[in-house]
Amino acid sequence: YGGSIAQADDIIAGKQKADVVHLAIPLDVVRIEQAGLINPGWQNRFPRRGVVSHSVAAIVTREGNPKNIQTWSDLAQEDVTVISANPRTSGIAIWQFLGLWGSVTQAGGEPQEAIDFVRRIYEKIPALAQDAREASILFFQKQQGDALVTYENEVILAGKNRPETNYFVPTLNISIDNPVAVVDKNVSQHGTRKVAEAFIDFLYSEEAQQEFTKLGYRSVNPFVAETAELQFPKIETLFNAQDLGGWPLIQEKFFADGAIFDQIKGKS
Description:
It is a single chain. The chain is an alpha/beta fold. 42% of the residues lie in helices and 13% in strands. The protein has helices at 4-12, 26-34, 91-105, 111-122, 132-141, 152-161, 184-190, 193-203, 206-214, 222-227, 247-255, 260-264; strands at 20-22, 51-55, 57-61, 82-83, 147-151, 166-168, 172-174, 176-182, 237-239. The strands form three sheets. The protein has a four-stranded mixed beta sheet. Helix 1 runs parallel beside helix 2 (26-34) and helix 3 (91-105) packs across helix 4.
């Protein structure tokens, strides 16, 4: 187990000889595909374009919510500091950025409005953490910042050990889609394709999807989603990566060298 970007890097470098990947962000599977380890068209080999579980963004605040943070827009208040990881090294940081951006554009705002909104948030971040774990340590253990944007499933799990956790799930939210794929080059070397594909098939089963919900993930099976023991807050407007142009465009537009994220952070 480990961060999605780091796991993908290790697989590409040959340090991890994985037969199956289940990562936090489709962009990392695309990178493994581009490295020649996964055959093109992996999204079409399994249901729901390879997405086997998903979550949404949750905004964690200090106990009692002293800054009265109620919406995405409140994160841009002058007296609010958000603790964040770096999109260069962290999957949750990419989802956070896209959630912030989409909270403007998916509500009818213009791209320039989204740039101004996101800039107001990032210019107050003292330093970007390496990954979600480091960001959580800064927020929960070192008591830095006023808000933390993270996966809903992570907050649900954290709440079991920290019942006083104060958070909310915005009703306009991004679908955090977690893909699964067979690493073709590795299964061919290992002779494990049949069992790898059978394992992925099982992950889509009702039994496995019920287990995902127990861990705070939202099921991709509508029946399981409706009947799960854990009932999730309702999302009124749910957008996804395709609504923002798809992963190739997202990478080029937001996270490539000199793209919008670099511009917002004052880099060239």
